[in-house]
Design brief:
alpha/beta; 12 helices
Length: 314
């Protein structure tokens, strides 16, 4: 469990290392919408916030050996964030990714001087290999989503949204392992409602809420490269149990259409996982009440740009 105090501590720690991304007004005059442009964050994804918070806090406590460095397991984005943070702080990074990780993400990992190891077909296999490496090397493990400092760093996004638009009632976010959701829930508790959006093909939080505990789900679909955790994290489930979000599911077709809309209307090159949040609104999975002020987090843009104009034909 994390609290807003954890998020505020993270904000103070990382403020000189991350970008304060813009909150843009979209939608129509009758139904305004705010887009939190976190795809403009370092490495093109929100996860830089948690990565810096984790590594800086570990340095403060003497838990990160600069000679050994950090290790992460990721479908790509958490690896990018931790590799970037490590390079910025002058420590080495080793990143384990599934064999099907998008080429664009692997190339960027290498550009950040990370050692990349591709293992297995799913995140869980990369995760298990990373744990073996940690045991052998003593490197600091940076979880993709289920560590308090990772989640608290992500929660700083809600602080920015609610400072820029204090009247926002609802924050809509895509959920994979749930680190971003957990941070937002901690930061926005008592101030804004959270709508947690997942693909129907990877309903980690939705399934956990129905079962009363985190459970494994199958992983497939268009957004699996970034939302492809097999089960929701313990921190996210703890937050959801205390203050349940509005949990909705969207189809791959809805995600593809939302991504196409982000590109055609705003020229935002969202990855499928990031478009999942907007899909809740465009597909009607979540229908705001009249005068409800809604902010949608566009959380990442690590995608193949050649597919943007082709999105409607997938």
């Amino acid at each position: 469990m994390i609290t807003r105090d954890d998020v505020l501590a993270a904000e103070k720690r990382i403020t000189k290392h991350v970008r304060r991304t813009p909150l843009l007004r979209g939608g129509t005059s009758a139904a305004p919408l705010w887009l939190k442009c976190e795809f403009l964050q370092h490495t093109g994804v929100f996860k830089a916030r948690g990565a810096f918070n984790r590594q800086l806090a570990a340095l403060e406590r003497g838990e990160l050996d600069p000679a050994v460095g950090v290790v992460a397991a990721s479908g790509g984005n958490a690896g990018l964030a931790n590799a970037y943070a490590a390079a910025s702080l002058g420590v080495p990074a080793t990143v384990f990714v599934p064999e099907n990780a998008p080429r664009v993400k692997v190339e960027r990992l290498l550009a950040y001087n990370a050692t990349v190891r591709q293992v297995g077909a799913e995140y869980i296999e990369a995760y298990e290999a990373a744990q073996e490496y940690v045991a052998q090397s003593g490197a600091l493990f940076c979880h993709a989503y289920d560590q308090p400092e990772i989640a608290a760093g992500a929660g700083t996004i809600a602080e920015e949204i609610l400072r820029d638009e204090p009247g926002v009632d609802t924050i809509v976010v895509a959920v994979g392992g749930g680190g971003l959701y957990a941070g937002l829930a901690a930061a926005a508790s008592g101030r804004a409602k959270i709508v947690a959006v997942e693909p129907v093909t990877i309903p980690t939080l939705h399934a956990a809420l129905e079962a009363g505990r985190p459970v494994d789900v199958s992983v497939s679909g268009i957004a699996a490269d970034s939302l492809g955790a097999r089960r929701v994290g313990d921190i996210a489930f703890s937050m959801a149990s205390k203050e349940p979000p509005v949990s909705v599911l969207v189809t791959d077709e809805a995600i593809i259409a939302a991504r196409a809309q982000l590109w055609s209307e705003y020229r935002i090159p969202a990855e499928y996982g990031a478009a999942t949040a907007l899909a809740a609104l465009t597909a009607g999975a979540y229908v705001p009440q009249q005068d409800e002020r809604v902010a949608v987090i566009i959380c990442g843009a690590n995608t193949d740009p050649s597919t943007l104009d082709a999105s409607p034909r997938h």
